[in-house]
Design brief:
With 372 residues, the chain is α/β, with parallel strands linked by helices. Helix content is 37%, strand content 16%.
C-alpha cells in the first residue's frame, strides 16, 4: 500500500476549523455593531486563513481548506448566492432534559435556480495563494440535495417549476456545473459537497418526516443519485468531486442516527462521485456492512475520529476499525479522516484548539502506519 498522490488522501479531513477569537470579534463588529467595513473584515479573514493553512500543513495534511472562515453556516452562505434561492437562519431548540438540538434552516426555491455569479472563486484564489507547493487546496460546498430535501415539493415554487423532473434538477445541476467550472478555471481540482440529507434518510424519524411531506424515503436516495449524477455530468475533467455525509454537527450535537444501509446502494454504487466521507465515530453510524456496495474506482474516507469531543481515540482502536471496514471494501479504496469538521457553523464544537491539532496528527500518523 502507498500513500495516494491524488485526493482524497489517506489522511484527509472534512474542512472546517474552530474560528480564532479575533475573527469572531471582527465578525461581531461587522455583522452586529456595523463598526467595520467589508474590506476590513476580509482582511481579518485573510489573516486567519493564512494561519489555518499553516496549521494544516504543519500537522501533515495534504488537502488544505480555508477552514470555512468566511462562512457563518456551512450551507446557507453558499445557497443564498444562487439565483432563485431563499434561506432562513436555523434556530436552537432546547429539549425538556436541557440538551439542545438544531432546528434546520428553511431553504426555499422561489424562482428558477441559476448561477448568477462566481460564489467561491475569489475565496479559492486567496486560499491557493497561501498553500505551499505540493499541497492540494480543497473547496467545500453544500450538496444540491439541500434545495429539495428540507422543504420537499412544498419548498419549491410551482410557478417556477410546475414539474420538478427534469427542469428543476437540470437547472440546479447546470448552476452547480457553472460554479465547478469557475473553480476549475481558477485552478481548483478538489471539491467536496456536504450532504446531511442522505444521512438523515438513515434515521427513522427523518424518514417519517419525509413521508409526511409526500416523499418516499426508499425512493429518494435513488432519485438523489440521479440528481447528483446530473451535477457530475457537468464536472470538469481532472477535478475530484467528493461527498461528505453529515448527521448534524452544531456545537457538538447531532441531528440524526442510523445505519447507512437505507442509502448505501444509491450512494456507493449509483452515484458517479469519486469519493465519500462517511461518519463512523460512534454507534449512531452502525456497522461497516454497507461498504459492500462500494464500486471499483471509488474511495470511502472513514470518519473514525470524532470532532465533537476532546477525548482522544487510540491508534490501535483506529487500526482495528479500519481492518473491520476492510472486510467489506478493499483497503486500497479506504482512507481516514475525522468524522466531520470542527466548526460546521461559526459557533464551533465544544473542543479545544489543541485537541483539534492532536486529532489531526492522530489521523496523519495512523494513516501513515496503515497505508505506507
Amino acid at each position: 500500500m502507498t500513500l495516494r498522490q491524488t485526493p482524497p488522501f489517506r489522511a484527509d479531513h472534512v474542512g472546517s476549523f474552530l474560528r480564532p477569537a479575533y475573527l469572531l470579534e471582527a465578525r461581531e463588529q461587522f455583522f452586529v455593531q456595523k463598526s467595520i467595513t467589508a474590506a476590513q473584515l476580509r482582511a481579518v479573514e485573510d489573516r486567519a486563513i493564512t494561519e489555518i493553512v499553516k496549521f494544516q500543513q504543519d500537522v501533515g495534511l495534504q488537502s488544505i481548506t480555508d477552514g470555512e472562515f468566511r462562512r457563518t453556516y456551512f450551507h446557507i452562505d453558499f445557497l443564498e448566492q444562487l439565483g432563485g434561492v431563499k434561506t432562513d437562519i436555523p434556530v436552537t431548540v432546547r429539549r425538556a432534559d436541557g440538551t439542545e438540538e438544531l432546528a434546520p434552516p428553511v431553504i426555499r426555491v422561489i424562482d428558477k435556480v441559476r448561477h448568477v455569479k462566481d460564489i467561491q472563486r475569489a475565496d479559492f484564489e486567496y486560499l491557493k495563494s497561501q498553500v505551499a507547493a505540493g499541497m492540494t487546496p480543497k473547496v467545500t460546498i453544500p450538496s444540491p440535495t439541500m434545495l429539495h430535501f428540507r422543504g420537499g415539493r412544498a419548498g419549491i415554487s410551482r410557478e417556477a417549476y410546475p414539474e420538478l423532473d427534469p427542469a428543476f434538477y437540470d437547472d440546479v445541476a447546470r448552476a452547480y456545473g457553472d460554479e465547478l467550472q469557475s473553480l476549475f478555471d481558477a485552478g481548483c481540482r478538489y471539491v467536496q459537497m456536504d450532504d446531511t440529507n442522505l444521512a438523515y434518510l438513515c434515521d427513522e424519524k427523518m424518514r417519517e418526516a419525509a413521508r409526511q411531506r409526500g416523499d418516499d424515503p426508499n425512493e429518494l436516495p435513488h432519485r438523489y443519485a440521479q440528481f447528483i449524477n446530473k451535477v457530475v455530468a457537468h464536472k470538469p475533467a481532472g477535478m475530484t468531486l467528493a461527498m461528505h455525509l453529515c448527521r448534524g454537527n452544531f456545537k457538538s450535537t447531532h441531528a440524526a442516527a442510523g445505519n447507512y444501509e437505507p442509502v448505501a446502494e444509491a450512494l456507493l454504487s449509483e452515484m458517479n462521485l469519486d469519493a465519500f466521507f462517511l461518519e463512523y465515530d460512534d454507534d449512531r453510524s452502525g456497522d461497516f456492512r454497507p461498504l459492500r456496495y462500494l464500486s471499483k474506482g471509488k474511495v470511502v474516507v472513514l470518519g473514525l475520529v470524532t470532532t465533537k469531543f476532546g477525548a482522544m481515540e487510540s491508534k490501535d482502536a483506529l487500526k482495528r476499525r479500519i481492518a473491520e471496514a476492510a472486510q467489506y471494501a478493499p483497503l486500497e479504496q479506504l482512507c481516514l479522516s475525522p468524522q466531520c469538521g470542527f466548526s460546521s457553523t461559526v459557533h464551533g464544537n465544544n473542543i479545544a484548539v489543541e485537541d483539534q491539532r492532536n486529532k489531526l496528527r492522530l489521523v496523519v500518523e495512523t494513516a501513515q502506519e496503515v497505508w505506507g
